[in-house]
């Protein structure tokens, strides 16, 4: 809990790694994920570092593994379970892994190329078969139309005037030729126009569409093709036709000159296609065997190569000592994990067989350590909410432990509905129960991943919504009468207040709680269900929720101001308690805390009998600042004097907040009693890096610039700038004082969102569900089924998803702006430990794993 509240205590340490055991030591540290390495060679470029060749080999192996994974995925072969976590291979085993991958790549490449070649040949033979079959129909139709011209049976669609032209061309020595092939269906119209324009009518084009889809050899996608046959006169026209066919990427095939030749070609094609099918089937079987064998080890290779590359990357961050026999690394490490770090170095030295052990040495530093906050699967979601605002400074109070309660509670105040909260809680509970399911964890749907990672947040929001739904007594816009209403209509008749004629002559009647027996007492839990039937229900709930929002907001902001004391005490800035914390708290409580007091006092002191005499809190609060109100009825005796006193205290706290800290720091730096003192406290011997850091690095955050306490004690004291400190404090004072007003008003969103959610739920019930329930015919039951389905869909999509997201965002804003800015700066740096489990993988990003 201490780590979650303030983060781990960090230290800077040096690792002395023997050259022979450095690889194994880094591997052990990568498995543990304890430390963050610093770059000791910032002036050396990436390509000039020692292990750049090893990293290039790892990148080459990653390229081969990417090729293997793409082929395995293309073949629809499932990878084995990912439970294996192999250790990083030794450097001497890198070449053997490289040779295996290269050999597998060459073999797989040859088989793949042979398969592609066979498929292309099969496609060409299939297209040639379709061409011969369809062009035969051209010739048969031509013979049927011109039975007397048997000598020109190979010429399609030959008409009489064309015969005369042909005779003329034959006398001039022109030669009749044919070109046949296939073209994409989308290009045939443009192809036909081009032939007509270029060849001046000396060609005849016949075409027909192939019934089945054929695979495009370039893209691999199925497409429609058209078979065409072009008859032309003369070699020059033939050359033009061939060039046009090349421009339109036509697949040309030889056209047989006679029926006998056509039959021989068709028979030969049939035999070759059968042989190709057999060979292709065997090739695919062999390819599948190769891929199945590769898939058994590819995941292990991916992990091993990723670890090897990461280790060499870390080794490039280290520096050599003067003897070139030892590597020196600097790491940020939690103080509590120093023994574990030492054991990991000893284990790495033992595995490598080194006779000289590696060891760790803590060193002092002036640098601000990174922030490490340990989380589990429950607290990680709430910590991510805080980190999205900003990573906390080193050892600063972390809002996440309090956010675990306050965030779902404020969400539930805006989302309060028993039914909707139960649906949300059940959905989150299902995700929690099946959180180890790989299909749920490893999906690539970003929206689903967002919901799944926040399953515990959703569960808490659902449970708190159930609670606030019980308080509001609201379940799908209906109230639950569990304990029986505290209001009775019978007493109005018993006491003779109402008559039968009153009921018949009035649509609305008012229950008088002053009549004996009408109001027997408050409802045991939440709001009385009779308010769901009242015509003034909205007025009552508006008043209740608005005042409740103001009270919750003031409590939330006051709690944030109180949490700042933990920072002041921990960072040894006790003067901030008197010059910052106390004025802030007095200003907030004397004005807005007094407002909450008046609300509660009015609730407790005024009953139904004297409710008409109750004064307006808003008018009294305004008159408090105007120093007026003598002619008005006071809320309690001595109200005017107390209000004047509170306003004076609030006004006086502003100059204290503005000038107190800058003047004190100026006196501290220029006073005569600074010898042997630091900020008014005697300098004592420090036993931890944290204490040294507290006396030094955090001064920069307050603008005081006390950095005279260096490790050696020889650093010169930085000059104190009163102007900078005063400007910083002035901005803080203006922001805080104005923020108290705006932040209090901002909490009214709790009332607004709660009202909007309740009204949307009521509208949805009245316009959808009530329509189906009012049908009293036999078909009413059948009609109720689609009505209920529509009601369920609208409830989930609008009230749960859209309204839930809206309430989530508003609760997020209340925590970031109104709560955290009272004590949380969020300008730190998060610790990025060297851990194999946290390393990103390009294969997972590309969906190959």
Automatic annotation (TrEMBL):
It comes from the Eukaryota. The chain crosses the membrane at residues 409-433, 454-472, 548-566, 578-601, 644-667, 780-802. Pfam families: V_ATPase_I. Residues 94-128 form a coiled coil. Its main location: membrane. Keywords: Coiled coil, Hydrogen ion transport, Ion transport, Membrane, Transmembrane, Transmembrane helix, Transport. It is a multi-pass membrane protein. PANTHER family: V-TYPE PROTON ATPASE 116 KDA SUBUNIT A 2, VACUOLAR PROTON ATPASES. Essential component of the vacuolar proton pump (V-ATPase), a multimeric enzyme that catalyzes the translocation of protons across the membranes. Required for assembly and activity of the V-ATPase. This is V-type proton ATPase subunit a. The lineage of its organism: Eukaryota, Metazoa, Chordata, Craniata, Vertebrata.
């Amino acid at each position: 809990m201490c780590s979650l509240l303030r983060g781990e205590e960090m230290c800077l340490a040096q690792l002395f790694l023997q050259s022979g055991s450095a690889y194994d030591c880094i591997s052990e540290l990568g498995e543990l994920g304890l430390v963050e390495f610093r770059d000791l060679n910032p002036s050396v470029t990436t390509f000039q570092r020692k292990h750049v060749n090893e990293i290039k080999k790892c990148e080459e192996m990653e390229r081969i593994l990417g090729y293997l994974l793409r082929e395995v995925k293309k073949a629809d072969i499932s990878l084995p379970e990912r439970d294996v976590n192999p250790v990083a291979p030794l450097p001497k085993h890198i070449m053997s892994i490289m040779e295996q991958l290269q050999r597998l790549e060459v073999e797989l490449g040859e088989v793949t190329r042979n398969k592609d070649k066979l498929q292309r040949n099969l496609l060409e033979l299939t297209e040639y078969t379709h061409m011969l079959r369809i062009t035969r129909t051209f010739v048969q139709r031509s013979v049927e139309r011109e039975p007397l011209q048997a000598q020109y049976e190979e010429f399609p669609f030959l008409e009489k005037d064309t015969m005369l032209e042909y005779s003329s061309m034959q006398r001039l020595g022109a030669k009749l030729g044919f070109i046949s092939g296939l073209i994409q269906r989308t290009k045939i119209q443009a192809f036909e126009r081009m032939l007509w324009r270029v060849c001046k009518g000396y060609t005849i084009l016949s075409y027909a569409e192939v019934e089945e889809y054929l695979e495009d050899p370039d893209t691999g996608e199925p497409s429609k093709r058209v078979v065409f046959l072009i008859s032309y006169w003369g070699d020059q026209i033939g050359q033009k036709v061939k060039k046009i066919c090349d421009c339109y990427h036509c697949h040309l095939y030889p056209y047989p000159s006679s029926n006998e030749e056509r039959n021989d070609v068709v028979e030969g094609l049939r035999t070759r296609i059968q042989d190709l099918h057999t060979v292709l089937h065997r090739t695919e079987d062999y390819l599948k065997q190769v891929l199945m064998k590769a898939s058994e080890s590819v995941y292990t290779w991916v992990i091993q190569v990723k670890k090897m590359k990461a280790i060499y990357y870390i080794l490039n961050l280290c520096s050599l000592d003067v003897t070139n026999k030892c590597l020196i690394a600097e790491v940020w490490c939690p103080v509590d994990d120093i023994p574990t770090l030492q054991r990991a170095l000893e284990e790495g030295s033992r595995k490598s067989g080194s006779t000289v052990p590696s060891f760790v040495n803590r060193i002092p530093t002036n640098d601000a350590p990174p922030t490490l906050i340990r989380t589990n699967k429950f607290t990680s979601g709430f910590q991510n909410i805080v980190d999205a605002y900003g990573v906390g400074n080193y050892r600063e109070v972390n809002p996440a432990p309090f956010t675990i309660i306050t965030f779902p509670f404020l969400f539930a105040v805006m989302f309060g509905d028993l039914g909707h909260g139960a649906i949300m809680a059940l959905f989150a509970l299902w995700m929690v129960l099946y959180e180890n399911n790989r299909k749920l964890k490893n999906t690539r749907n970003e929206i689903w991943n967002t919901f799944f990672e926040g399953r515990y947040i959703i569960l808490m929001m659902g449970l708190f919504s159930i609670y606030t739904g019980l308080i509001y007594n609201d379940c799908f816009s209906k109230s639950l009468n569990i304990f029986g209403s505290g209001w009775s209509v019978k007493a109005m008749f018993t006491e003779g207040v109402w008559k039968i004629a009153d009921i018949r002559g009035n649509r609305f009647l008012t229950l008088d709680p002053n009549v004996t027996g009408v109001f027997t007492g408050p409802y045991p839990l939440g709001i009385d269900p009779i308010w769901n039937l009242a015509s003034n229900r909205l007025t009552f709930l508006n008043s209740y929720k608005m005042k409740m929002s103001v009270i919750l907001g003031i409590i939330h902001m006051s709690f944030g101001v109180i949490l700042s004391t933990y920072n002041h005490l921990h960072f040894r800035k006790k003067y901030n308690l008197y010059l910052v914390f106390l004025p802030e708290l007095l200003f907030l409580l004397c004005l807005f805390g007094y407002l909450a007091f008046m609300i509660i006092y009015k609730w407790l002191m005024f009953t139904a009998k004297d409710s008409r005499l109750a004064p307006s809190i808003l008018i009294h609060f305004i008159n408090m600042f105007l120093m007026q109100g003598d002619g008005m009825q006071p809320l309690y005796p001595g109200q005017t004097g107390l209000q004047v006193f509170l306003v004076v205290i609030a006004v006086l706290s502003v100059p204290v907040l503005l000038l107190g800290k800058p003047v004190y720091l100026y006196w501290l730096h220029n006073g005569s009693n600074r010898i042997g003192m630091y900020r008014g406290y005697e300098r004592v011997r420090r036993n931890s890096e944290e204490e040294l850091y507290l006396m030094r690095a955090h001064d920069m955050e307050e603008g005081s610039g006390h950095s005279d306490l260096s490790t050696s004690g020889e650093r010169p004291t930085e000059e104190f700038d009163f102007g900078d400190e005063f400007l910083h404090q002035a901005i803080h004072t203006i922001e805080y004082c104005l923020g108290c007003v705006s932040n209090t008003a901002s909490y009214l969103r709790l009332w607004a969102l709660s009202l909007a959610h309740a009204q949307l739920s009521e509208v949805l019930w009245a316009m959808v569900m009530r329509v189906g329930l009012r049908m009293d015919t036999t078909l009413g039951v059948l009609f109720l089924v689609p009505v209920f389905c529509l009601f369920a869909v609208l409830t989930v999509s609008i009230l749960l998803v859209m309204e839930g997201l809206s309430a989530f965002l508003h609760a997020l804003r209340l925590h970031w702006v109104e709560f955290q800015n009272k004590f949380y700066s969020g300008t730190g740096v998060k610790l990025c430990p060297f851990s194999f489990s946290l390393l990103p993988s390009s294969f997972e990003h590309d969906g190959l794993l």
